[in-house]
Amino acid sequence: SRPPADGGTGDLRLVLNKDQPGDTASALFQSGFSGRAEIGLTGGENLVVKASADGAVWRDALVVERTSGIVRAPALPAFRASYPPGSHTVATTSTDLVFPQVLDNAGGCYSPVTGRFTAPAPGRYLFSATLDCTASVGGRVLFAVNGSQVFPIAGLIGGAAVPVVTVLGLAAGDTVAFRTSAGHGSATFNGVQSVFTGVFLG
Question: Structure pTM?
Answer without folding.
Answer: 0.81
